[in-house]
Amino acid sequence: MSDLDRKDSSACGGGCPKCGALNQCGQQPGGLTGWALVASSACAFLLPLAAATAGAVLAGAERTHQFYGAFGGLAAGLLVGAVAARLIGRKAKEKL
Asked: In the chain, which residues have pLDDT < 70?
């Protein structure tokens, strides 16, 4: 069931965990909440920014070096952040 069908349906109140048609619309119960949501969001957004800043600072005073340092830091931050966010999400789902 798509979002448009769900909105048009009079039987759908938007509370998917309580919905009897959960198997039809493909929504899974659960999801990240609380600290797991905050931590995975920080890993996905804040960690790459911090890594890019650190890379630019550590690269030196020349603009070209700062650019490549920021780019390398951003790439490393994205990689580490994606892995960390997946691990946090996996551990949170195992607790359910």
From this structure: 1-30, 96
The encoded tokens of residue 16 equal 């998917």
Q: pLDDT digit string (tens) for 49-71?
A: 999 999 999 999 999 999 999 99
Tally DSSP H helices, then E strands, for the chain: 5, 0
pTM over 0.85: no
Closest CA to 80 of 54, 48, 53: 48
Sign of CA dihedral 83, 88, 92, 94: positive
Residue 62: phi, psi to the nearest 5? -75, 140
